[in-house]
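User: Study the chain.
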Amino acid sequence: MAGFCGLKILLLCAGIISLANCSYTVTSIKGGFQMNITSSTNGIYTININEKDSPEIVKKSNVQHSNQNTPHNIKHLKPCTEYTLNVAFIELNASKETPCNDAGNEITFEKTIGMRKDDIEEVNCTPGYVCYRSDWNISSSLSTSNHTQAEPCKSDNKILCIIPRYDDICSDLTTNFTSGNCSNSFSLTKSIPVDFLNSSKISQTVPTGLPANIETTFSPNCNDLTADYTCWESGKLNEPKKLPELEPFTNYSCNSQILDVNNVTIKNTTEISFQVDCDLTINAMPSATNTSIVLSWTTTSNNCQDVLSHLQKLSYGCSCDCNSKQKPTIAVITHPQGGTCHFTGLTAYTDYTCKVQPTYNKKNVGKPAEVKQKTAIGKPEDIVKLMVTIPEHNVISVTCFHSKRFNGPEEKYIARLYYGIAALKKTEKKKCEFEFRDLRSSTTYRVEVTAFNGHYESNAKKEKFDTLYNGKALFGFLVVFIIINNTCVVLAVGIFVQKCRSLC
């Protein structure tokens, strides 16, 4: 026998035969199996473990064996699960593995024991997560009341972590553990404190009106939390303001301290930025004379009505423009909820576009309110120059120069002819061109011309003139007079002669 063994060792050293007398035993322990390799040969052994009926190797370990009955623990297996195990000796040249056997079998089927509650340990790994550590592979044994998938800890693969949902904060999170194919199961309950609040997930609804209010939504189970906001205007970090102090048309950045029922600060919210633009509605009401417009208005706001009367930086600018380059005089009286602008020095019967522009802190805000207004009918502008000519002895021609500003709906000229205080003729025309005939010669007349717009006449432009001396008419008159006189003399002589004859 001794000679055989010496021959065997010699052949082994020469690489002619392989070692075949290594063996092992398997014992189920917490977390997996304990392997005891029983062999007289020291060296490296490989241990492969598969789930039963699965070709995938879930564990592969290379172990150094130096003493008989050296235990090797294989952990982080699933509880109450059947596995296939095989062990092989790696020979010196690493070109060949010699299978070992367990009770004569090269492949062993073993089942892990069930998991108990004290096999699970609550640990810290990732902030904001509930984490459990176990020597068992609990990835398929764990389920939570919030149906959230567990995640492995980055620093330890034996730790699984569960992130509570937002609604789980300030309540209990229950995690159920099952033990593979065994019927035993248990659960662990973790109270999720308010510290688990993730500031980035706190809902903050920015204000859309004044007075400002930021709606902060916490987990529905955190009933005793409040938010105390502090805000800063852009570029004014040393001038903090509370929400009731915020102004419109101003950019702010705000964050809040989250306070518990005892006003103890738990953490801060994330910063939010916003600007409240008041939706100003300006109701403008104009009225006019022939030289002025009074523009009055009232202001309302859907989202800032409650603070409108307190907005001392809210003001208004007014303008009334037409197509001319005329610049009216403006008198302005304003307050946050309205005002009046009085425009004077305007042109009568002219269309104006009037605007009210709201301003806040001397900057235009919102759209201007715009109304159109026509000034009332006024007197036409006076005639600048009147020209009278006498083309014939008993005829005059009248023309005038006028600016064409009638300041009313109609455009006419009226010419009146006077002899002394007596009005002789009145004529209306579209053009300032008149002619008067059949006048007396060598007579002083007065002509007056006005511009007329259907309602009012301008001041009259007056001009006196003398008709010419008519010599031809006088000569004809004298001829007729002489003829008449001579006829009368002849008739008288004839009558006298006849009378004398009758007496004789």
